[in-house]
Amino acid sequence: xxxxxxxxxxxxxxxxxxxxxxxxxxxxxxxxxxxxxxxxxxxxxxxxxxxxxxxxxxxxxxxxxxxxxxxxxxxxxxxxxxxxxxxxxxxxxxxxxxxxxxxxxxxxxxxxxxxxxxxxxxxxxxxxxxxxxxxxxxxxxxxxxxxxxxxxxxxxxxxxxxxxxxxxxxxxxxxxxxxxxxxxxxxxxxxxxxxxxxxxxxxxxxxxxxxxxxxxxxxxxxxxxxxxxxxxxxxxxxxxxxxxxxxxxxxxxxxxxxxxxxxxxxxxxxxxxxxxxxxxxxxxxxxxxxxxxxxxxxxxxxxxxxxxxxxxxxxxxxxxxxxxxxxxxxxxxxxxxxxxxxxxxxxxxxxxxxxxxxxxxxxxxxxxxxxxxxxxxxxxxx
Length: 382
Ligand code: GMT
Description:
Layout: E1 2-6, H1 13-27, E2 31-36, E3 50-54, H2 68-83, E4 87-91, H3 93-109, E5 116-120, H4 123-126, H5 135-144, E6 147-150, H6 153-162, E7 169-171, H7 187-193, E8 199-204, H8 213-226, E9 229-234, H9 240-249, E10 256-260, H10 265-269, E11 274-277, H11 286-293, E12 298-301, H12 306-309, E13 316-319, H13 324-335, H14 338-353, H15 357-378
Helix pairs in contact: 2-3, 3-5, 8-13, 11-14
Bound molecules: ligand GMT.
């Protein structure tokens, strides 16, 4: 198949999933055309089946807000026509599903039909899409997609509850590539971070409000009172400054390291004992899955899709959002005992294997086939 993938090319989860999916499809023999405003961060290696088309917003003095959607739609039309794409797969509803609808209509006016699949990732529904400013366009463009997927059962339900949707939403969960995310021996690295054998707790995110990064530090503070430990903070974002201030106030700077955005997260996960993700909204929690693939148990909130990934009492523990005591006690109960930690590590790995890319990629391929077949038979006009 020749597949066009539209996504945000940044560090965010939706862009990561879209890029890893594209790489997986390319390895499986499909021709994959990324259409984004810059090369996606995880699209580093060259692959003969991967193509990249840049759709940058045109700057002009008249525009206070450069019309990215217009240049993206034109680029989609261009690539579909000249590369003879079979379908477009857009990730993150806002604005990609609406832009794809525009591209589809333009192509239709020229007698060319291209099916559009939209994958919902989370904040496009939970924080952005259901805002009044977007709601009608999001509802319309989901309903006009030829196929819609959501990354968890929870997100599927939340979409149906919040929008007037008349389309089936197929759940195809996020996935992890075990070639990259696996526990490797990085003992030298562990010694540098925790020279006295301290436990290593880790958090990775985009440091947005929704991640409740301060809770990570508060949980760590309680764990630290009982168990010698270190905290690694990976990523960057708007809350980072505030959280660094908190570390100073509670005088734990020497035990907490802010590492910023890291390309090789798996190397840090390889030396970690516990992953913290106390988010107040999380459609799936890809970062938790990647930690589990590296045999790191998870302390999380019980929100959104997290219970579909982190199994309470097996791969880690789930607590109410903001319940720092519960999260800290659960964390201590895992890392205070080597045998218990070992068991949780092994359970985390088994659960992560359910989301191995080799199990999930065929689900996307089958969905593509299904949508292509149904669009051939039903000669769609809208
Ligand atoms: O976590 C973020 O804020 C980034 C966001 C995104 O869309 O880039 O992540 C969402 O999509 C990921 C991939 O499907 C999911 O694993 C994350 O749970 C989801 N984030 C939220 O729902 C907050």
